[in-house]
Structure formats: C-alpha cells, structure tokens
Amino acid sequence: MGFKAASGRYVKFLVYLVVVVLINVVGTTLFYTADLTKDNAYSISGASRRVVSTLSEPLTINVFFTRNLPAPYNNTERYLRDLLKEYGNYANRFFNYRFYDVSPEEGAVSEEAKENQVLARNYGISPVQIRAIEKDEVKFRKAYMGLVLIHGDLMERIPTVTSAEGLEYRLTMAIQKLNNKISALLRLEGKINVRLYLSSSMESVAPYMRLSNLPQLPEKIKQIVGKLSDRHYGKLAFEYLDPSKGEDLNLLAKKYNLMTLRWPSLSDGKVQAGEGAIGLVLEHGQKSVTVPLIRVLRIPLIGTQYEMADIDGLEETISENLESLIDINEDLGYLADHGTPALANPRSADPRRQQSQETLENFRTLLSQNYNIKNVFLKGDPIPTGMDCLVINGPTEGFSDYGLFQIDQFLMRGKSLALFLDRFQETAAGDQMPGTGQGPRIVPLETGLERLLDHYGIQIKKSYVMDESCYKQRMPAQFGGGERPIYFAPVIKSETINNKIGFMKNIKGLIVFRVSPLEVDAKRAEQAGLKVDRLFSSSKRSWEMADRINLNPMLIQPPGSEVSRKSLPLAYVLEGKFTSYFADKAIPEKPEVEKSPEAKGPDKEAETGPAVDLSKIEGEGGFVAKGGPAKIFVITSSEMLKDNMLDEEGRSPNAMFIMNVIDFLNDREDVAVMRSKEQRFNPLMETGAGAKTFVKSFNIGGLPVLVVLFGLLVWFRRHARKRRIQMMFEK
How confident is the model at residue 602 (pLDDT cuts 50, 70, 90)? Predict the structure, then answer.
C-alpha cells in the first residue's frame, strides 16, 4: 500500500509538471495581454493602429541597439521591442522590423557586430555616451541606441532612443511622414477629378472685365494638370465643362460655391445680357475643394474690379489643395501682418540681446515637425484655400472690415481659427511723464476681432486675471531670498481643467501669463447652434485687475475679503456651423493699396477696355452666409506661444496643450491623445491644513493603535475559542 501511494504521488507530480510545461509552450504563441495602466501607456493608440494598418508599400524598421545595457537603458530596449511587436499585431503585411546587435567599439567585437556597426554608420546611426554605475563606480561607455525607417526609396532616422518617453509618438509620426509621401496616392482608389467650370457666355463680357486671357484658360489649366498628374502617379484627370450647355448653373454654384456672374446688356447692346460661372473644382469621392479663379475687388473711388488668378502660381495652388484633399500634408496658416510677432526673428549679433528676445522659435520648431507653415498676409492677398487652420497670434493693429471679412469667410469654408489675443498693449516707456519713474503704461487694445467673437457669444473682459495659485519666483540672496508670487502668472491645476475632452484628457496642469477672463453668452451660442466647451479656468482664489493696470509684482497684493473671488474661464473651444458676421451687412470694400514705383510705369499699365460701369454686373457665389462645420479656439494671451512658455522638445504640459489644440483644430484629435498619454506630470491633489494634520497624526499614532486593536481582536477570538472547547469537555 505504501509503495502504491508513493508511486501515485510521483505520477501526479509528473502529470502536473507536463501540464505546466505545455501551458508555457502554448503561452509563447497563444497569449493575451492586458494594459492595466490608467492611460493605456503600454498599448498603442488608435492613431498608431491606423498608420501601420494603411501601409501600401513595404516599411522596414532597423533597430541598432547594444545588448546588456545597464539600467535604465535596458528598460528602453525592452519597451521598444514590446512596442514594435504591438505595431506588428495591428499592421498589414508591409510592416517589418529587425533588431541588430551592435557591440561597442571597446573589447572583442564579433564579425557580425562589426558588419552591423558599418551598417549603422551607413544609415547615419552613431554611438552615444552613457553613464553606468558598476561596483560603486561611475563609468562611461559607448552604446548604439537608434533606429532607421525605410519606406521605398525614402528613409527617416531616429538616431538616439535613450528614453521610452514619447517614443510611440515619434515612431508613429515618422511612419506617417513616410507613408504620406508615397502611400497616400498609391492607395487612392480611382482618380482625382480636376474640373474646370467655365461658361462660354463669359467670353463676350471678359474684355470689359479686363479678363482678356479668359479664353486661353482651359488649355493652360489642362497643361498644368497634365504636368501635375505625371508627378502624382497619373492620379489626376482633367475635364472642361461649360455650364452654359445644359448644366444647371444654380445647382452647380450651390454645390461647389462657384463664382456666378450676371450682367445686363452692355456697350449699347454689343454685349447681350447673360449669366455665367467659373471655378476649378478638385473632387475625389465625397470630398471636394474649389479653387477660385476670379477675385472680386471693391476699391473706393474706383469701384468694382475683377482680377484673374495668378496663372504662374496656379500649379502650386492646385498642388496645395490636392494635398489637403487627400491628406498628404497638413498646411497651417500663420497671420504674419497686423503687428503679430514673426515666427522666425532675425538673430542679433549681441548674444546678450539675443537671449533677452522673446521669440517664437520653439513654437515654430514644434509646428514644423508635422505641419507646413504658411505665412498669411491679409493686407495683400486672401487667405489660401489649401489650409485647414489659421493661427492669429497677438495682433496689435486693427483689422479693416475687409480683413475681418476674409477671416469670416475662411471660417465659413469649414476651416478653423486658433486665436491667441491680447486685451491690453504696453505703451513705450517714452510715452510716460518724465520723472515719474514708472514703467510702460498698459492700455486696452481693440483689433476688431472682438466683434467677430461677440457675434458668436464670446466676450473678452477688459481686465487681467490675478490668482493666489500662481508661479513663485525665487529671489536671490541679496534680495532676501525666498519666493515672490507672480499673481498674473496663474498656475492651472487639474481640478479646473476640463479633462472630459479627448485632447485635454491627460493635461494635468498648465501655467498661463497675462491672461484676461472670457465670458460666454450661452443663449446666443445656443441660438447659433454652436457647442461651447470651456477648456480650463483659474482657481477659486483668483480675482480681476481692471481700470488702472500695474503689473509690478512688488506692488500687487491680494485684495481683502470684501472683494469677491471666483474661478474665471480662460480658454474656450467653439464648434458648429457658424453664421457669417456679414450675413446682414454689405460686403466690405478692399482698402486701396498704393502701387509700388515699378508698377506705375507706362509698361506696367493694366489692360484697358471700353468704359463700362462694372457695378451693373451682379455676382453670386463669392460670399458664404452659413458655413460648414468649423472650430474656433480662443485664449486671451499671446504669451502662451513664446519661448519662455514652451520647451523645444515639446514635453512640458504647456507645449503638449498647445500642440494638442493645433491637432484638434486640424481634425487630428487621435494624434493629440497619443502625444499626451505619456504625460509624466502627475501632481498630487491639493489638501487643506486640516487634512494634512489628520493624515500625519494617523500615520504617527493611528497605525499603531490599529495594530493594537487588531491584536486584541485576535486575542479575544482565541480566548473565546478556548472557552468553547473547555465547555465541550466539561459536559
């Protein structure tokens, strides 16, 4: 019996061992992983899945990493392996990756490692110096930690991967950049139709409108489209349509927003009354983009004038709109006049002055990683139609009605606006009374954009927000040391940030500077059918400084209890179908621009034709009264984009917030969520003095008391059990 029992135990042990081994073998091929982190930090986002699942040509990622690196670099390699494996789970058959063991140059190096070193150098991957602690000694060694992405004949490098932070974002953006360059056109089903709508009836009136080149326009555009098609894998197809021959002019004008013209009998009956339409439409599937070919100018004293689009620049215009149509590249407009700061300031020869300049270099660097920045000059030309978002940052000059009309119509075309506006402006120090010893005076600033915002229910108050929850400036020892609060630099904490919005989900804190509060007329916004979302507010300990503004930190003191304090909204996003501000107003005239001396010579004179009153020609289709879905972001501080508020790497909460807003306005919210999901800034919740005292007292005295009570409970239970046993045997 003993032998059988022992043998049975051994057999059972062997069966269990075989089962465990088989489970581990099966687990190497059939497994399931679950990401239990709050923000899914170890799972790739939807944007990454979309990018790798839509590859249309082979993409290979070669990773050059030295093995057996010390902590924390070994964790980076492990994370990179897991990340690429995750990419592979969602990618199609065109995605491949390979790790190359590249040993350091010191010591014995295998032949394979030498070949990998040469390969890495050919790809532009060089070793970096890292610090390692071995046997209580700090040592420095060289290590390869980089990768290269190869897509067709194109290549993109990430030469150093020393941290897992933001690695998914960098990889996905690099893949998307390559994919956009090659794959977008190759995966396109069907061709992009480039249709020229031009009524032949307009040829008779064209000379009177100074558009004598109008009859040659179809042939010129055909040549341009043919040239572009050769460079875009033959994906463009040109078609010339005459709406005068059987086409429903009103239907076409409404569908594509074509320029339509109606004219009476002109020049003593030589030109009969008629109507016509003109426009260039790029269409693919359900998406279309209309390129205007004629501009209507209403010039004071001169009257209505018509101007043909620049034929020499039409190729670039079509190409830009083509990229916007099929999402190859993203263009971003930046208003470069009306007193806005330049994105690229000229560098000063004096290094001390250069450091003191408040530039937008970091903002420009971050934008240029994913966007093609286009300067927009409202005083000269209309806003290009190939961009989806316009950034207006800190204008100091007033907008004319014509300039506001251009911005309004840009919004009506379903585009987005990012408004960083200042409510006040500093006057020069020389404007002060001599001998006062005061600095620049701060005066209210009116640009005209306030009228557009008020039309949609947003008002900017003439005050600055002061907050006790603010940035603390460290004072040098010669000034007494300690910290000085900068009340006009509020620190925005998690409890006043609207994390319900996708691109704001992982923004845990911000700092703003010289910001004014916003007010929302909810009833007006609701009547306009707009969705208004507050992004963040100041703390409940904030107040307003109005009337006499003085931002000298030494002279600002929190107000007494008689002054009401409350949380003040600082940033909003508006979404919906906006109604034009000029819907019930006359279309403004374009201000007269003085011609340059070169344009005044006899050889530069414009075409002349018979004197005709062009105001008799009625035009429709150039004005949109009710637009498509669009977005407006507004914050009253241009300081948010300066270098002292944004870091060059884009890892600070401020930088992530700004870039997330830009991505959101360009319909790339999934990219914004991916960027900020690895946000390392996770501040603790603020507690009052009473809560802190309770927690401290509980840790010191409460825990020992709980241990004693638990011990007494165990003793009583054992004692009761002992009594029950005694009573059983006494019976």
Answer: very low
Nearest to 535 by CA among 562, 575, 566: 575
The neighbouring-strand residues paired with 271 are 266
Pairing between β-strand 287-291 and β-strand 274-284 as defined by DSSP bridges? antiparallel
Kindly report the length of the chain.
731
Asked whether 317 and 384 are in contact (CB, 8 A), the reply is yes
CA triple 343-344-350, angle to 5 deg:
130
Task: Provide DSSP, 556-593.
Answer: -----TTS-----EEEEEEEEEEEPTTTTSPPPPPPP-
Q: What are the tens digits of pLDDT across the range 709-722?
A: 899 999 998 888 88
Residue 150 and residue 97 in contact, taking contact as beta carbons nearer than 8 Å: no
Q: pLDDT digit string (tens) for 523-580?
A: 888 888 889 999 999 999 999 998 888 888 888 888 877 677 899 999 999 999 999 8
- Looking at residues 677-697, what average pLDDT do you find? 71
- Helix/strand/coil (H/E/C) assignment for every residue in 472-510: EEECCHHHCCCEEEEEEEEEEEHHHECCCCHHHCCCCEE
> What is residue 71's DSSP assignment?
T
Q: Is the dihedral of CA 672, 677, 679, 683 positive or negative?
A: positive
- Please check whether residue 491 is in contact with residue 509, taking contact to mean a CB–CB distance below 8 angstroms: yes
Secondary structure (3-state) at 94: coil
Whether the CB-CB separation of 145 and 76 falls below 8 Å is answered with yes
* Rounded Cα distance, 164 and 147, in Å: 13
pLDDT tens, 189-221? 888 899 888 888 888 888 877 787 888 888 998
Q: What mean pLDDT comes out for the span 219-236? A: 84
DSSP single-letter state for residue 337 = -
R_g over Cα of the chain: 34
* 317 and 331 Cβ atoms separated by less than 8 Å: no
Supply 482's token pair.
């300690």
Q: In this structure, are residues 237 and 159 in contact, taking their beta carbons and an 8 Å threshold?
A: no
pLDDT in tens, 109-138: 677 788 888 888 888 888 888 776 666 666
Task: Give the confidence band of 625 by pLDDT, cuts at 50, 70, 90.
Answer: confident
Say which amino acid occupies 631. K
Q: How far apart are CA 672 and CA 47, in angstroms?
A: 9
Contact between 516 and 551 (Cβ < 8 Å): no
For residues 62 and 123, give the distance between their C-alpha atoms in angstroms, rounded to a whole number.
10
Pair of tokens at residue 186: 């190759």
CA distances from 627 to 198, 414, 416, 527, 707 (A): 24, 6, 11, 15, 69
pLDDT of amino acid 340: 93
Whole-angstrom distance, CA of residue 704 vs CA of residue 724:
30
pLDDT of residue 600: 43
User: Pick from 504, 493, 511, 533: which is nearest to 676 by CA?
Assistant: 504
The Cα 299–Cα 260 span in angstroms is: 20
Residue 229 burial by CB count (10 A; 0-12/13-18/19+): exposed, middle or buried? middle
Distance of CA 46 to the CA centre of its chain: 17
Give bridge partners of residue 458 from the DSSP assignment. 520
**pLDDT at residue number 636:** 93
Residue 601, classified by CB atoms within 10 Å of its CB into exposed (0-12), middle (13-18) or buried (19+), is exposed
CB-neighbour burial class of residue 276 (10 A; exposed 0-12, middle 13-18, buried 19+):
buried
More confident residue, 438 or 201: 201
Task: State yes or no: cis peptide before 653, omega within 30 of 0.
Answer: no
Distance separating alpha carbons of residues 331 and 373, to the nearest angstrom: 6
The contacts of residue 25 (CB under 8 Å, 6+ apart) are none
Q: Would you call 617 helix, strand, or coil by DSSP? A: coil
